[in-house]
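Bench notes, afternoon.
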Amino acid sequence: MKPSILLDLARKSVIAWIDDYAPSMGAAISYYTAFSIAPLLVIVIAVAGAVFGDEAVRGSLQSQISGLVGHEGAAAIQGLVASASEPREGAIAGTTSIVLLLVGATTVLGELQSALDRIWHVPEKDKPSGLWGLLRARFLSFSLILALAFLLMASLAVSAGIAAVGSWFGDFVPGSEVLLQLVNTVISLCISCLLFAVIYKLMPSVEIAWRDVWIGAAVTALLFEFGKFLIGLYMGKAGVGSSYAAAGALAVILIWVYYAAQVFLLGAEFTKIFAAEHGSFRQQAAAAARQANAPPAAAGAPKAAAPPARAAAPEEDGLPEPGPVATFVATAVLGLAALVLDRRRRDRRRTGGRLPARKPT
């Protein structure tokens, strides 16, 4: 793609970002994230910890979060995760805590879906509604959480492989550390790009082709990686944490999440503009532009078609097709099993390898 086309897409994306009130949407996402980050990380640690172990996953997350928000913010997040993952006594309390974890973790992703629907200008009638729409949105959010956990596992496996190769080649190939660090950065970019592409493809309530989301996901991943350096430099020089005294850690987290939300929304605007001018929405955008420039039509004339809504599951006798339901249920069972196993491991560790005895009734 020519640089002039990229610059034109970037200019139109910024204009659309302003017109859609993305700064206000980013503030809402930051608020929800402040309450969802602990349960979200608890589920990710439970799923990834079943493969690599809790300590390895927690250590990796701690180092990555420290690189993003600094040691003060990472310590605050670590405390929130430790409090949220503390086992509760009794079956009712344990079940309630798991349900609250699921609701809290999926809340911020529901807000992301709402923001993407606003960016794509999805009509109200095409947005998820009713009980089935709510359940579908929650299960989709939970599926994305599991995808995040699997991507974390892939990142851990790649990092472990690179470290092993580095320790083997370090004594024989001079400068191998720089090369391996570059490889690690490229792989991190690819993982981020894959995650953004999946979100841009699946979360909006419109049908989007895969070829429409890859460029926007790549741009978002590049901005995200570049912004990590800039926001870290800003928070280090400005002393944001010390300026807010006791609330400094929360302020650091909110500032970082707000920046990440703006990058995410700008990437979504870029994806929409690219799809409208060079992707699968090109013909629909051209038809809408022709109708906008045409003289007023007579009453009863057909209106321009809106972006195609995501096809709803076929229904029979008021019940949805079993295909998507089976997929969502399997995903939920997998995540719940990981959470239950994680709680049981913690109970065994706390009671010296024995499950806590039931209290007499």
